[in-house]
């Protein structure tokens, strides 16, 4: 199927489009605020974001901080999981 610049894929009013864009922007902002992007970070990236050394991040892993194994020898971190784990530790 070849579509030209004047072909229509769906019917949407300007108002509908505005609402869709606003919802999308709100979702993205909430994800950034809570760290729920799902993006996987390296140990170095996590350390930089958390303002700790990579050795501290590795210590957290040994203490039970959630991480995502990638392959046999690598791992990644999801910021939202790390923040949640740190908060649980703080609360006791």
Describe this structure in words.
The mean pLDDT is 87. The protein has helices at 14-34, 43-50, 54-62, 79-91, and strands at residues 40-41, 68-70, 74-78. The protein contains 4 helices and 3 strands, in the order αβααββα. It is elongated and about 60 Å long. The longest helix is centred in the N-terminal third of the chain and has 21 residues, at 14-34. It has a 3-stranded antiparallel β-sheet with strand order 1-3-2. It starts with 13 loop residues before the first helix and ends with a helix. A hairpin with a 3-residue loop joins strand 2 (68-70) and strand 3. Helix 2 crosses helix 3 (54-62). The protein is 55% helix and 11% strand. The protein has a domain at 40-91: Winged helix-like DNA-binding domain superfamily/Winged helix DNA-binding domain (Arc Repressor Mutant, subunit A, Orthogonal Bundle), CATH 1.10.10.10. With 92 residues, it is mainly α.
């Amino acid at each position: 199927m070849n579509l030209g610049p004047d072909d229509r894929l769906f019917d949407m009013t300007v108002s509908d489009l505005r609402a869709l864009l606003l919802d999308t922007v709100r979702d993205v902002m909430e994800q950034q605020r809570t760290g729920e992007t799902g993006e996987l970070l390296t140990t170095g990236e996590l350390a930089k974001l958390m303002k700790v050394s990579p050795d501290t991040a590795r210590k957290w892993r040994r203490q039970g901080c959630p991480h995502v194994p990638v392959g046999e020898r690598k791992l990644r971190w999801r910021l939202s999981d790390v923040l949640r784990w740190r908060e649980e530790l703080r609360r006791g």
